[in-house]
Amino acid sequence: MRKVADCRDYPSEMNCTLVISGEEEEVVRAAAEHAVSVHGHTDSLELRRQVRDALKDEVPQHA
């Protein structure tokens, strides 16, 4: 099952609307890189754990 990380689920000063979807490891890596480069977080195992814990299953758009 594909996973989704959605910045809209988290309040931010920039009102980020980025949504990342894909296989779990791809999404964790991309979302952590985004959190560091755009939101100023520090890349760490803890950040990646938080990203992983917040992932949602992707809802298929096509039947």
Compile the SSE list and pairings.
Layout: E1 3-6, E2 19-22, H1 24-37, H2 45-54, E3 56-57
Antiparallel strand pairs: 1-2, 1-3
Helix pairs in contact: 1-2
Commentary on this structure:
The structure is a single chain. This protein is of the alpha+beta class and 63 residues long. It has one domain (3-57). 38% of the residues lie in helices and 16% in strands. The protein is built from two helices and three strands. The chain has helices at residues 24-37, 45-54; strands at residues 3-6, 19-22, 56-57. It has a three-stranded antiparallel β-sheet, with helices on one face. Helix 1 crosses helix 2 (45-54). The radius of gyration is 12 Å and the shape is globular. It holds the Pfam family DUF1059. InterPro entries: DUF1059. This is DUF1059 domain-containing protein. It comes from Streptomyces ochraceiscleroticus.
